[in-house]
Structure formats: C-alpha cells, structure tokens
Amino acid sequence: MIHAIAQHLTTILFDRWSMTSVPILYDNQPNIDVSDSRSWCRFSIRFGQQSNATIGTTKAVDQKGRVIMQIFTKHEIGSSDALTITENVSNIFNNLRILTNDYSLSVVEPMIDTYDDEDWFQTNISFKLNCRYNVND
Q: In angstroms, rounded to a whole number, what is the distance separating the alpha carbons of residues 98 and 7?
C-alpha cells in the first residue's frame, strides 16, 4: 500500500507543479543532468514508524513518514528562487488531505531548513505524512 500512496503523492506533485523550468529528480528516476540549471529539486517520500491501528477482524495500519523536497539554487541566484520554489511546494502539500477507498492520508506541518556551500544554496522543506490503510490477510 505504501507504494500506491507514494505514487499518488508523486502524481499530485507533477500535476500541480507550475515551475516547469525547474527539473525535479525523484526516487527510481534515471539520472538527469542538472549542471546547467539555475535551480533544481530532489523529491522523495520516506516512510517511517508503522503501528497497528485497530483490534479485531478489520486490521488497519497507521503509517508515519515525511514528504521531502530538497531545493538547490546556484549561489549567484541566491535565495530568491529557493523561496519561490518553497512556496510552490508548500501550496501543493501543506494541509493536503486525501481519502480513498484504500487509504486516508494527511500532509501537515512544513519544516524548512537552509544550507549554504561554495556552489549551491540549499533549502529543504519537509512535511509530516500520516497515513492509515486496511491490511488484507
């Protein structure tokens, strides 16, 4: 089920992504060259703690995780592009709630960190991911 959840969130990102000039690398994607890009991003979903959510005949699982976007902008561009991209990502995922026949999920509480090195200004925005889904025996 977590594969379906990750695929759903990835589809939402690409359906709502308005910054077509900014390439996005994501899990299980062939490598692409971003050396000439002003800015580029790396998107990933990391699943973590899992626990039983119910007792009885219908079994459900609570699954925690994080939705993560790492944003890299050239040093000479500075943080302006990074802030614009961060806002775009936040508009897509913050307080996202999904209910399907198979699972429910919410994406909340963005956390933003910034880093600076010789070549790139890096901004990481990550969101808590809370999921619940039924388990079939």
A: 13
